[in-house]
Fold Fatty acid desaturase domain-containing protein.
Amino acid sequence: MALITSPPSNPKAHQFSPPHCATRRPGQAELVPDITSAALVDAAESKPEPEAAKFKRILLSDVVVKSQKRVFFGRKWNAYDLATASVILAMHCLCLFAPFQFNWRALLVAVALYVVTGLFGITLSFHRNLSHRSFKVPKWLEYFFAYCGTQALQGSPITWVSTHRHHHQFVDSERDPHSPTAGFWFSHIGWLFDTTSINERCGGPNNVGDLKKQPFYRFLEKTYVIHPIALGVLLYGLGGFPFLVWGMGVRVVWVYHITWLINSACHLWGKQPWKTGDLSRNNGWVALLSFGEGWHNNHHAFEYSARHGLEWWELDMTWYVVKLLQAIRLATDVKVPTEVQKKRMAI
């Protein structure tokens, strides 16, 4: 498995002073300067610091930060980035009220919406169905699941799917929207605040023609902000401020960080049973929180697969939902890797 390690040192070329010319007397042998000795002395005196010293390994990982991106300072913020930062900050601030607004009904609402928006919305719909087309469902059900994903406050289906497809296209390179080689915090959250850079590196949402041609997804793209606001108003009407704090603040932030851990932790810590040629890892504790998405090396080995937990002991709640939909004939064309494909990718 090709892993990014400390870059090799690249010493600069040394320039040597021309040898001093000595006057040769008649009959005296010509003086030949010892260029080899001069080079050795000069090289010994001016050893450059290895380039590897400029970079740092991420804690408990073999991944090296190759370029530290300046996201928060030293650049121009566009309106979209400011809006994204404001929403994320607002959701985190709302969580501060959670200990003082706790009740069991509010917690139940948060857990239920965690499943609806996290499992049905992000992992089942945005990721496995829309991004990778690993199974098919009737259009009415596809749109329902996609609407659940919109309520996760992670962007519209078009935006989310485009970013994810760019991630697979440019995985762990300079053009990856959230490469860990730019630092843990950049891959976890910082990349969200610099859409200008992502558009420059990836070319914008030019890889989602299958979604753009459908009026429903264009509608969600144009009206995206309205839907979470409407849910917030509904929650407040049903249960007051506790429902808003737990059903929006706590639940949204919880799903945020679980999703972001797949971009960061699952490219830094864990095992790599497949020769994918990238930094993706299988991480069991992230898989437990993310309904099976943490089996990330499995996913990068077989992007088309509806099943991420390929071993019987690899818990994958999203796959179990797909199997249930298949059993009741709502899911068709369900893709999983064959044994031949597994042998080809095995280390």
In short: The chain has a mean pLDDT of 88. The longest strand covers residues 56-57. The two ends are 8 Å apart (CA to CA).
